[in-house]
């Protein structure tokens, strides 16, 4: 999901908005330890968890988050 956060950051910076390093760290801290293990969490569940974590720390639409997935 590091790539998706980088894409989201690039899109928001193009709009003149910022994502701080602290926000990025909080997003990744909010993800469960087994987040990238597709045997434990399905891709659909991963997307939902990621969307919730991003929305918790960044004021951005769910559609924009999903567009980078």
Give the arrangement of secondary structure elements.
Elements: H1 2-14, H2 21-30, H3 43-57, H4 62-67
Describe the structure.
The chain has 69 residues and is mainly α. It has helices spanning 2-14, 21-30, 43-57, 62-67. Helices cover 64% and strands 0% of the residues. The protein has one domain. It is globular and about 40 Å long.
Radius of gyration: 12 Å
Shape: globular
Number of domains: 1
Please write the string of helix (H) and strand (E) elements. HHHH
Q: How large is the share of residues in beta strands?
A: under 5%
Structure class:
mainly alpha
Report the span from N to C terminus. Answer: 8 Å
Number of helices: 4
Low-confidence stretches: none
- Number of E-state strands: 0
Q: What summary fits the major beta sheet? A: none
Give average pLDDT, whole number: 91
Helix content: 55-70%
Task: Give a nutshell description of this structure.
With 69 residues, the chain is mainly alpha-helical.
């Amino acid at each position: 999901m590091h790539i998706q956060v980088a894409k989201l950051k690039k899109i928001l910076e193009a709009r003149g908005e910022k994502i701080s390093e602290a926000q990025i760290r909080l997003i990744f801290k909010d993800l469960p330890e087994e987040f990238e293990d597709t045997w434990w969490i399905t891709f659909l569940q991963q997307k939902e968890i990621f969307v919730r974590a991003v929305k918790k720390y960044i004021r951005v639409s769910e559609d924009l988050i999903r567009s980078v997935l």
